[in-house]
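Researcher: Quick sanity check before group meeting.
Model: Go ahead. Protein one:
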Amino acid sequence: MPKTRGILESSLYVSDVPRSVRFYQETFGFHVIKEFGERGCAMHSGERQVLLLFKKGASQAIKSPHDGDGELHVEFAIASAEFAM
C-alpha cells in the first residue's frame, strides 16, 4: 500500500474570491501562486500544499467541470505554540 505525503491540494468554493483571498492572506499568511481569472486562484498553504479557491458555479463550463456547495470542511494543522504569540 503506497504511503501518502499529505494532501497536495484542497478546493473550496466561495461566493467572494477576493474576500476569501484576503482572509487566508491575513489569517495564515498564504500567498497566491496562480490566478484563474474570474474562476479563482491557487494559494500556497504549506510545504507542498495548495488551497484552491473557486467562485461558486464558475467552473461548471470548463472542459472538466466541478463545483461544490453545502457544508464544506478544511482543517489546517497548527501547533498550539503558534497561538501563544
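Researcher: Fine. The other one?
Model: Protein two, sequence then structure:
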Amino acid sequence: MNTNGNGNGKLSLEKLSFGLGDRFGHQAEAQLRACMLAAQHGVEVIPVWNKSNREHVIIGSGPSDARQAVDVAIGNLGWKRAYHVDADHIRLETVDRFIPHSDFYTIDVADTIGKAADAKAVAEFVKRHGELAGRIEIPGIVEPFQTSRAEVERIAGKYLLAIQEAKQIYGHIAKEKGEGHFITEISMDETDHPQTPVELLVILTAIADAGVPIQTIAPKFSGRFNKGVDYAGDVMQFEKEFNDDLAVIRYAVGKYELPKNLKLSVHSGSDKFSIYGAMRRALERFDAGLHIKTAGTTWLEEVIGLAEAGGEGLVLAKEIYAGALDHVQELCAPYATVIDIDPRKLPSKEAVNKWTSEQFVGALRHDAKNQLYNPHMRQLIHVGYKIAAQMGKRYLEALERHQAFVSKNVTDNLYERHLKPLFVRNGSSNGASNGAK
C-alpha cells in the first residue's frame, strides 16, 4: 500500500494529481506511462486510480482487484513517486468494501444538497460566523463579495446537512484506518446547480467547523461537463469561476485552518479541451494545485484500439456499439446529468456494420477537426461499458491480443490530449512541478 506522506506521518495529496479510471483493470501500465512522460518533461503528476462502487458492480470486480492491478503496474514500470487508489463516489453504505484497499476517498454528498438542515444548527452557524455577512475582500478577486445574513443562512440551510453527512462518512473511515492515513475529497459536482464562489466560501467554513480535513473539493461549475466530450458553456464565465474558486480556497485555508494543500478537483474533466487553457492560466496565476479526473476515457481508448486493430477487434467494437444502441435508455439513465445524446444523430447498427476501421475510429476518437467525429456516439459508448462487461472473457482476451494498439491509444490520449496541454509547456514544466526529479 502506498504510504507517501508529508513528513509528519500524515498522508498528503501532492500538488498535481490525475484521476485515472481503468474500468476493466487492464490499462494501469499504459496510464502510468503517460505520467512517466510528464515526469520526463519536468512535471510531477501523481496518478490516482479511481473506480466507483457502481463500476465494480457492473464489471463484476472489487476494490482488491483495482489495488492489485495498480500495484502490479507500479512494480513492473518501477514508478518511484507517489500514487493513490481512490474509493470513488462512496457513500456510508458502500465504503466498507474499499477500506482495506484504498487510501483516497471521494465522499459524494450531492444527493443530500438542498435537503433542509436542522434550523438550530443553521442558526448557530450563522451566529458563529458573522464575518461571512457583509463586505468580504479576498485577494485575487477584483470585486469584493457583498453578502447578507439572510444569504449566509440560505446557503447554510442548503449545504449543512450534506457536510454533516460527509463528517459521518469521514469519521467512519477514520475509525477504521486511523486519522491522517488517507486522503479525503468531498464531491458536490453531481447536482443540479453550480456552486458560486460565495457558496464555496460558506461550504469550506462549514467543513472546517465539522473538522473534516479535506485535501480536495469538487464543486459543480457552470456549463455542461458531459462524459468524454468537450465542455459546453461560456469559457470566459468558467475561467472567472475557476479563478475565483482558487482565490476562495487560498483565503479559506488561511482563515479557517484547512489543510494547506487543499485544492480544486474537476470531475468529468476528461476531454474538456476548450477550458484547459483557462485552467492552466489560473493554476499558474495562483501557483495552485489541481486534481482532475479522466474517468471513462481509457475505456473509450480500449474500444478505439480494438477498432484500429481491425479484424475481430473491429467486429467486437461494432458489437459493443450495437449492444449499447439496443439498451440506450437503460445505459443512459444513471448518467442523465452528465450526458447529452441526440438519438437522431446516432448511426444505425446497419450503417456501422459496413464501416471500415478508419470510419469507426474517426467517429469515436475525440478529434473535432475530423469530419467523421460523432460526440453522440462517443457518449453512448462511454456509458456502454456494461455491454463489454457482459462479454466477459471474450472482451478481456481481445484486449490482451490487441494490447499494442490499445495501450498506445491509452498513453497517447492521456499525455498528448490531457497532461501536455494542462501542465507541460515547450518541453518543460509550467512551474508547478512540485519537486519532480
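Researcher: One line on it for the slide.
Model: The longest helix spans residues 149-177.
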